[in-house]
Write a structure and sequence with these properties.
about 90 residues; about 75% helix; about 0% strand
Length: about 90
């Protein structure tokens, strides 16, 4: 999760998404912070579609994403001028 947080701060979205997938492939259950950090890195890099994919992935996991995660995803759509997707 710490590596994902670092990727989020640096907008290294592809590494963040990759690390999230590695966690899942290794049968680790990513925490909300991991999903939020991955989504945040996508948002900072203006990758709205990838941010929404991370949200979809989180929703299919064992927990309900928080308001923060939904907010990050909405921000990604706003940055990409894709308001319809945010709704």
């Amino acid at each position: 999760t710490r590596a994902l947080v670092g990727c989020g701060r640096a907008a290294r979205w592809s590494e963040a998404v990759h690390l999230l997938q590695v966690m899942k492939n290794d049968q680790l259950s990513p925490e909300e912070a991991a999903y939020t950090s991955a989504s945040s890195s996508c948002t900072k890099a203006h990758k709205w579609a990838q941010a929404l994919e991370v949200l979809r992935d989180a929703r299919q996991s064992s927990f309900q994403p928080s308001l923060i995660m939904f907010s990050v995803s909405m921000s990604a759509c706003a940055r990409g001028h894709k308001w319809r997707h945010a709704l």
